[in-house]
Design goal:
mainly alpha, three-stranded mixed sheet
Length: 195
């Protein structure tokens, strides 16, 4: 019998395109993440690059004084977890104002979509962090679903709730799916209720 090397599974490639050509000047860095299954690229604003760089600097400082592999793995994963949490902070900031300010609603939607696009990297980091207790709630999915329901976009909201549940993010996704179906079946033209 011939022993052939295993053919690696096809690597997913995700490139997050942000902004139009006239907005490209606000991006100062490019984040690249790669492992056996994923190649991910995303441009970062100065604020996002600072968040990543601060986490990276913290990792380097810890690396210089610690030899415990679990501690080092934790701080290494914080580079990506800190970006996920930064996006969540921005979502909470703008989502609270979205009802009153259309610009805040647009920013909230942008950050929600960004955090959702970043989910494959964040998911890996939470799973690789030895001190993490699984995936947390995902602010981007939750807020974007609420915004879609307010706009009567039930199909898209239902898709996102199912996706968040399949990906394993903590939250009452089953109940949210049931509530979306119930609201949609009662009044398909209604504005959604907040969850």
């Amino acid at each position: 019998m011939i022993h052939l090397p295993k053919i690696p599974p096809r690597k997913s490639k995700i490139v997050v395109n942000r902004g139009r050509n006239e907005e490209e000047s606000r991006f100062v860095a490019k984040l690249k993440f790669e492992d056996r299954e994923l190649h991910f690229e995303m441009c970062l604003t100065a604020e996002e690059a600072d968040v990543y760089q601060n986490a990276r600097t913290s990792y380097e400082k810890v690396k210089a004084i610690h030899s415990d592999r679990e501690v080092l793995r934790h701080w290494n994963e914080q580079k990506f977890i800190s970006l996920h949490e930064h996006f969540g902070e921005q979502i909470r900031r703008y989502c609270g104002l979205a009802k009153y300010d259309p610009r805040a609603k647009k920013k909230a939607e942008e950050y929600c979509e960004l955090q959702i696009q970043f989910a494959p990297v964040a998911k890996r980091s939470f799973k690789n962090d030895p001190f993490s207790k699984g995936l947390p709630e995902h602010t981007g999915y939750r807020c974007l679903i609420e915004l879609m329901l307010e706009d009567g976009r039930f199909g898209e909201a239902l898709y996102l709730a199912r996706l968040a549940r399949e990906e394993g993010w903590k939250g009452p996704w089953k109940e949210i799916v049931e509530r979306i179906r119930r609201v949609e079946s009662i009044d398909p033209g209604s504005r959604g209720e907040r969850f």
